[in-house]
Amino acid sequence: MERLCGILLPLVHSRLHPYKNLTNNILLSERFNHLIFVYPSLSDRLYESSAKTYSEDKVFSLSTQIEEFYWPKRDYSLNVHELKQLKHFYSTLLNTPKKRLEV
Question: Which residues contact 71 (CB under 8 A, 6 or more apart)?
Answer without folding.
Answer: 54, 58, 59, 60
